[in-house]
Amino acid sequence: RGLLVESGGDSVQAGGSLRLSCVASGYTDSYYMGWFRQAPGEEREGVAAISLGSAGIYYADSVKGRFTVSRDNVRNTLYLQMNSLKPEDTAMYYCAGSRLSGNPLRANTYVYWGQGTQVTVSS
User: How far is CA 32 from CA 41, 99, 123, in A?
Assistant: First the structure.
């Protein structure tokens, strides 16, 4: 059974940076790995995703140019470098893994989910 553990969430001021990490264990067949976020009262939103060979990289329009997703398949780790953070980036951030192809920024593509790490950006 797949297990995903996120880390790196914190409270920062607007304009700051954070790097999230997600370590995967128990499975090696993820087609996509992705980052999602969910603010209170909002739906879970796809932020960034990357395919197995890193050939496909996808971003939500709201984070393009500010966030960078990467993966280390040797360490089974997914990263999200977040720069120029804004208060609207405040949310719980989740790591996810899929087993099949699909829309990489839609939650229903993914079957494995972490517990989340909180990112809070103050103005």
Answer: 26, 7, 33
C-beta separation of 97 from 110 below 8 A: yes
- Residue 114 is encoded by which pair of tokens? 């972490």
How does 70-88 read in b/e, with b if 16+ C-beta sit within 10 Å? ebeeeebbbbbebeebeee
85-102 residue pLDDT tens: 999 999 999 999 988 888
State pLDDT tens for residues 5-26: 999 999 999 999 999 999 998 7
The closest alpha carbon to 14, from 73, 101, 88, belongs to: 88
Other CB atoms within a 10 A radius of the CB of residue 110 amount to 25
Burial of 115 (0-12, 13-18, 19+ CB in 10 A): exposed
